[in-house]
UniProtKB/TrEMBL annotation:
<keyword id="KW-0067">ATP-binding</keyword>
<dbReference type="InterPro" id="IPR003136">
    <property type="entry name" value="Cytidylate_kin"/>
</dbReference>
<dbReference type="Pfam" id="PF02224">
    <property type="entry name" value="Cytidylate_kin"/>
</dbReference>
<keyword id="KW-0808">Transferase</keyword>
<dbReference type="InterPro" id="IPR011994">
    <property type="entry name" value="Cytidylate_kinase_dom"/>
</dbReference>
<dbReference type="GO" id="GO:0016301">
    <property type="term" value="F:kinase activity"/>
</dbReference>
<feature type="domain" description="Cytidylate kinase">
    <location>
        <begin position="2"/>
        <end position="195"/>
    </location>
</feature>
<keyword id="KW-0547">Nucleotide-binding</keyword>
<comment type="similarity">
    <text>Belongs to the cytidylate kinase family. Type 1 subfamily.</text>
</comment>
<keyword id="KW-0418">Kinase</keyword>
<dbReference type="InterPro" id="IPR027417">
    <property type="entry name" value="P-loop_NTPase"/>
</dbReference>
<keyword id="KW-0963">Cytoplasm</keyword>
<protein>
    <recommendedName>
        <fullName>Cytidylate kinase</fullName>
        <ecNumber>2.7.4.25</ecNumber>
    </recommendedName>
</protein>
Length: 212
């Protein structure tokens, strides 16, 4: 559709990696704020793979931030109010000109509550874990399925109960349960939702692709 893609979860993973590598205390607000001043996150499109890659202070960290040790700490890091506020501010700057697809757990409620199209994606925990295990296997990392399930359940519990930007479904979001859908079926479903919403906005005279 010609829109930029921003994976906000990758931003929190990159912060987690920086904190891990630099031994930043998660209970010291002053140390956290100082660390956040030194963190620059950007996304580069890889034409060979057709995917965006996350860069932390100019270094490609896409593979490292997807590893389980980062998954095990990212929800704890992203629940820190100072981290949350810093990343939300960056995300709002990135999407200020619109024309973006933004992926994250608080986009439709906190980052862009006025987004034209909101999709709340979900799936059964076991299926999410199987998909995650396959992703890790493709990267050469063999992780026990029970460990992945525990990680997913822990992350969901932390993310839905945190005080700052909790994971909740926006009232005006379209719900997509991907449990028994192929990727192609999911894409078609989302495109249909977008086409329907854009048609509604056109009829109302509110839609401009430059500001979508």
């Amino acid at each position: 559709m010609g829109y930029a893609y921003i994976d906000t979860g990758a931003m929190y993973r990159a912060v987690s990696l920086y904190f891990f590598q630099n031994h930043i205390s998660l209970t010291n607000p002053k140390e956290i704020l100082a660390a956040l001043e030194r963190i620059q996150i950007s996304f580069n499109f890889n034409a060979r793979t057709g995917k965006n890659e996350t860069c932390l202070n100019g270094l490609n960290v896409e593979e490292e931030i997807r590893k389980m040790y980062i998954s095990n700490m990212v929800s704890e890091v992203s629940a820190i109010p100072e981290v949350r506020r810093a990343m939300v501010a960056q995300q709002q700057r990135m999407g200020r000109r619109r024309g973006v697809v933004m992926d994250g757990r608080d986009i439709g409620t906190k980052v862009f509550p006025d987004a034209e199209v909101k999709v709340f994606m979900t799936a059964e925990t076991f299926i999410r874990a199987k998909r995650r295990q396959q992703e890790l296997l493709e990267k050469g990392e063999l992780i026990n399925l029970d460990e992945i399930i525990q990680n997913i359940e822990k992350r969901d519990r932390i993310d839905t109960t945190r005080a700052e930007s909790p994971l909740v479904q926006a009232p005006d979001a379209e719900v997509l349960d991907t449990s028994y859908m192929t990727i192609e079926e999911q894409v078609d479903w989302v495109i249909d939702v977008i086409d329907r919403r854009v048609s509604e906005l056109h009829r109302e005279g509110h839609f401009n692709k430059e500001n979508a």
